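Lab notebook, bench 4. The sequencing result for the construct came back, and we need a structural model before the next group meeting so we can plan mutations. Quick request posted to the team channel:

Model the 3D structure of this chain.
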Amino acid sequence: MQEKNNLSVSIFINHNFLLMLSTRHITKWVNTGSGRVFLLRDINMDISKGEFISIMGPSGSGKTTLLNVLGMLDSFDEGEYDFMEQPVHRLKEKQRPSFINSI
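Done. Here's the predicted structure in C-alpha cell form:
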C-alpha cells in the first residue's frame, strides 16, 4: 500500500452555537497500479456557526481535496459528513446541487 504525505485535521470545539459542519472519519483514496493512495484519511472535525478555522499542511497534503469535499464538489469513499444537521454522505451526487441551493 502506497501512502503520501496526508493532511490531518481533527478539531473538536465546545459547541455553544449551532453545529454547522461535522465530519467523522472522512477518507478518500484513489487506486493506482501500485495500490491505494490515500488523499484524505480519517478527517474528524466539528465547526460551529461563527467559528473561524484554518487548514494548513504541506503541498500535496490534501487541503484542496478536503475543501472540495466540504464544498460538496467532490465525493469521499468512507465516513460521515453532516452540514447544517443534514447528512451529506447520504445524498446522491445528483441531489447535491439542489441541497446546496436550498441553504
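The domain at 10-102 is CATH 3.40.50.300 (Rossmann fold).
Will bring this to the meeting.
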